[in-house]
Amino acid sequence: MMEIAGKTKFKRVLIKLTGEFLSKEGEKGINFHEVDKVAQGILEIKQRTGSQMAIVVGGGNLMRGRDIADSDVDRAVADYIGSLGTVMNGLALEESLNRLSGDSRKAVLLTALPISAVAEPFYRKRALKHLDSDKIVVLGGGTGNPFFTTDSAAALRAAELKCEVILKGSTIDGIYTADPKKDPTARKYKYLTYQTALEKKLEVMDNNAFAICQRENIPILVFQAEDLGSILSGEKVGTMVSNRPDEFFE
């Protein structure tokens, strides 16, 4: 089992990037200044660590299908609208990565929903070839199907592309026994088993995604989004969900 310690680094990672990082806090839409900040950070980390990167982009800054679950809108249609939002985010991120790097093919957008005018369709062999060519692979369109979240897409693509870990950025710095904002006695996990996460109903990822990770033994590292560079440099940051016995930070 891999460690987040010392100089340990990952060769290939799947980054789950929530759409909220591409907008101003509390706002909807795409803020291209924020997109550039995210892209610049990714490029700096890529240069420093050399890790191969696949990035699944969410659509929370635009719309999630579940956002209108209580309306009369057909759920499948709502999910497709949300999936198209992730393609928009992916296109913005791809453009920013290529523009800021000065390399028009540094990043490539692949989508589960075929939209040939703006992106390549996702094929596993093609994605693997891009990764082996050291390109940053941006993945939009979720799984390409309604009723599945981008968490599920992240788990599915991590398994398909043989990624060593899913890196899931959060608004807090790991997983706690309780909400640390409400309970000052909450303890932060350093390592957490899949089983404990299930039994204690700790919301790591949705059930479909979590089942894939558990079955395929793909570790999930939950961390504060701003700490991505520290993670890929091997620092002990965040909470690792895997088969390793539960352990708390002292």
Structural notes for this entry:
With 250 residues, the protein is of the alpha/beta class. The protein has one domain: Acetylglutamate kinase-like (Carbamate kinase, 3-Layer(aba) Sandwich), CATH 3.40.1160.10. It is 34% helix and 18% strand. The chain is built from seven helices and ten strands. It has helices at 32-49, 75-101, 124-132, 150-160, 194-199, 207-216, 228-232; strands at 12-17, 52-57, 107-111, 120-121, 136-140, 165-170, 189-193, 220-224, 239-242, 247-248. A ten-stranded mixed β-sheet has the order 4-3-5-2-1-6-8-9-7-10, with helices on both faces. Helix 1 links the parallel strand 1 and strand 2 (52-57). Helix 1 packs across helix 2 (75-101) and helix 4 (150-160) packs parallel to helix 6. The longest helix is centred in the middle third of the chain and has 27 residues, at 75-101. It is globular and about 50 Å long. The protein starts with 11 loop residues before the first strand and ends with a strand. The model is unreliable at 1-7 (pLDDT under 50).
- Contiguous low-pLDDT stretches (5 residues minimum) are 1-7
| Main pleated sheet | 10 strands, mixed
Shape: globular
CATH architecture: 3-Layer(aba) Sandwich
Give the integer mean of the pLDDT values. Answer: 89
Structural class: alpha/beta
What is the CATH homology-level superfamily?
Acetylglutamate kinase-like
Key terms:
single chain; alpha/beta; Carbamate kinase; 18% strand; globular; disordered N terminus
Entry summary:
The protein is of the alpha/beta class and 250 residues long.
